Amino acid sequence: MVDIEAAVGFVVAHGDAVDRARLSWLRTGAQPPPGLLDDAEVGQTLDGGWPATLDGTVSSVDATCFRLSELDDLGALGRPAARRALDWLATRQLPDGGWAEDPALADVAPDWARPGDPEAGFHLTANAGFWLTVAGLDARPSGPLDHRVGGAYAGVVQAAAQSLVARLRPDGRWPSFLPAGWLSAAVLYRQEMFHEAARIQVILAERMPELSPGDAAWLAATLRRVGIDGQDWLLVRAWRRLTETQRSDGGWESDDGRQFDVHSTLSVIRSCR
7, 251 in Cβ contact below 8 A? Predict the structure, then answer.
């Protein structure tokens, strides 16, 4: 079994103030200090997105999704900054239901967000669709909880799901990077496209033994965030993989370097919430 108390100890010992605030929110629902949330929103552009670089001026789909993931761990998706970002994402949807980065970001975009690249486009569609799915099921500032499938962004998320399904191969494989698999499965699950989501999950289960600790944590947190039961067979396998890869210090290794190990560990804690 995953040792959550050891994971908590790792974050406390090695995390910064933001990491510890994320831990408190995930563990107890404690609201972070307002100043910390303001700092987490720094750099937002006038159109509502966040740029790909600190000094950038062009909003990035990939960077905005990353910022939303950080704000979600602080319980801040209902704040005005996050809502502006989500509305910006919705307006960036292409006629075919997908997303692509602005061509102006070609020199700074990572491979998974490269403008004009079909694999990157699929990944961005899964990522943007996921965050609009998550937020669409939350309360809007102006009204009560929206119970439609997809919530406040129902039409946008439905079009995203159709775009993803149209590109799935018959065996459930997806023409993109590995994380696009669990992001897509989450979107399709919330759209009640259970057969399509299950096909992706079968492929993910086959690849579970080769998943890095960071990827296994991301997968588990993503599927749990859209309400997939903790006893789901794929999640059980993910937690088995995480149990095998938890270090003696309580943390998990990130693919992006030791400075991101706390982030991977927080993802595991989020998935067990």
Answer: yes
Distances from the Cα of 203 to the Cα of 29, 168, 174, 210, 222, angstroms = 34, 12, 9, 12, 16
Q: Rounded distance, CA 273 to CA 270, Å? A: 5
Tell me the sheet residues that pair with 51. 59
Which of 129, 169, 118 has the alpha carbon at shortest distance from 153?
129
143 pLDDT tier (thresholds 50, 70, 90)? very low
pTM for the full model? 0.92
Buried b (16+ CB within 10 A) or exposed e, 169-207: eeebebebbbbbbbbbbbbbbbbebeebbebbbebbeee
User: How open is the CA angle 116-119-121, to the nearest 5 degrees?
Assistant: 55
For residues 271 and 10, is the Cβ–Cβ distance under 8 A? no
- How confident is the model over 63-90, as a mean pLDDT? 94
Asked if residues 273 and 224 have their Cβ atoms less than 8 Å apart, the reply is yes
Which amino acid is residue 198, in one-letter code?
A
Alpha carbons 127 and 129: distance in angstroms, whole number: 5
DSSP secondary structure, 6-39, as one string: HHHHHHHHH--HHHHHHHHHHHH-PPPPHHHHHH
